[in-house]
Amino acid sequence: MADDLKLLSDLEVQQFIVTGCTIVQADYPAEFHGAIHSKIEEVLEEEGNLGNNILPRIPEIGQVFEHPNVKGALTSLLGDGYIMNPHRHCHLNPAGSKGQNWHKDCYVYDHNLRHPRFDWVLAFYYPQDTTEDMGPSAVLPGTQNLKTISSPKPDEAEEAPIAICGPAGTVGLIHFDSWHRASQNVSQKNRYMLKFQFARTAKHNLPDWDHRSRAWAPGIADTQPRVSQDVWEWLLGEDAEKPDEPDDSVDILTGKLIGECESTKLNAAYDLAALGASGIPALISAVREQTLATVEETTAKTPDNAHGTNPTPSPAAFALSTLGKKAVQPVVKLLGDDDWWIRAVAANVLYRIGRDAEASVPDLAVACRDTNWWVRRNAIEALTEIGLSTDDVLAGIRNGLGDEDYRVRRSACLAVAKFGRLVSEAAPAVAIVLRDENRYNRFYATLALRRIGTPDAQDLLLDDLFTSRWCPITTKDDRF
Q1: CATH: 2.60.120.620, 3.20.20.140, 3.30.420.360, 1.10.150.20. Which one for 2-199?
Q2: Per-residue pLDDT tens for 312-353?
Q3: pTM of the full predicted structure?
Q4: What span, in angstroms and rounded, lies between the C-alpha atoms of 292 and 183?
């Protein structure tokens, strides 16, 4: 089956890195998409919007994401073993609607920190021919790395959008942190779009796309070239090539870190990282200052939720994650800071450094017992990405399964899913999460038991699935 996948090319992956989106076609016969479109209209008319249950109610939708073009693109971006997350939604943009404001999506009921090195991708599927006048989803290309844009109001925004549209079967794959919106529907037709989420679950050692050359040559406008090239090197899974050193000095670049323009600060931070060890003290200082300045917005629920409930770390934190082993010890010191938000950001930086952060494992194991849930969550996530299965690491994960905070329990379930049989003794604790108060934690617990894969884990999983089975053909008009 893998041989049938239509993988992305080097250029297509690079274009996704720069723009934050790509479009593929699930080019089944028109009748296939027409049948899905008719069922969606029927279900929404008779039963209302089913939210997450739209897939089991209309299981044919699942075939869209098994199409070689779609599955190949997702594999290219997220690697083999990616998962479809349990949150999905059928979006109706009715004829005559004014559309939405520009916004970023939330990582539903989780608190991932946003980052250019992406682990999640949005998929927008259109079951009907969709033209620009029908109010398709639109994306602001190149904004996935930015916390702010000129204005979330469409009439005031200065950035030029890309409309995600095309014939029935069009699937737009979007960097999860991209600014996007449903555009104005000035047609006489209703526009349906099914939004799904996909996530990486395994570290990448080699390219998962049709890789021919590691050369960076997208040939498209890029306002953050160092950021883009770092994501490219990270996706290659090899030792990153050393970037050319910037022309500016540490002092000049440090001054740019405190400017007003977010893009300027981002470029300056990555330039400091390109200087190597000499740029680290300035980046560490900037992380402390910029992180402390965002505590209130991190914990607040904004009225318009434009940037979502998931924080965007400081440009300096982004840049530190590109430095690998050189940054580990300075970041570990931040892990012991008095401020909880600095500790949480430090754990996230170590997660983004990944394998090269092995020296931080003892400190991260301590952070799994932090008084703040966000620090515990991020510490478990970092330990999982580093991948060492020491006693302290596994103990931190097992304790996380019973944590008082649901976000820590979710992080622990994902850790179990990634370690698999190495933590098979955790299966009974995972099974308790099958009855969690949070619906998404229940999904991640089933994933963890599936990935453990022992007979005992499979029995626990099947017992739960037989009890919770949802019948897609049982409706209010056909109950038995």
Answers
A1: 2.60.120.620
A2: 889 999 999 999 999 999 999 999 999 999 999 999 999 999
A3: 0.94
A4: 36
